[in-house]
Amino acid sequence: MSDNYKDSTKALGGRYFVKYDTKKPFISSLLQDKPVPDSIKTAPPDGWKEIPVKYDSQ
Q: Which domain of life does this protein belong to (predicted)?
């Protein structure tokens, strides 16, 4: 397992959203620029269709 992330840096820890391909769930993307806010304690069993918080598109 690699510990390299975006821009060849190491993740600092924390919780981040992961996007899965619905037809190939073994394919996923870690959304490093979208940390999960502390206000979200659990995820629904089947996940979200969209990220449940607003982020700048920068």
A: Bacteria
Question: What pTM, to 2 d.p., does this model score?
Answer: 0.66
**Cα separation, 34 vs 51, whole angstroms:** 9
Q: Partners of 16 in the beta sheet?
A: 35
Q: How far apart are CA 57 and CA 1, in angstroms?
A: 29
Low-confidence ranges of the chain (pLDDT < 50): 1-2
Give the DSSP letter string of 9-38. -B---S-EEEEE-SS-TT-EEEEEEEEPPT
Q: Which of 44, 35, 29 is nearest to 12 (CA)?
A: 35
**pLDDT score of 1:** 42
- Specify whether the CB–CB gap between 43 and 52 falls below 8 A: no
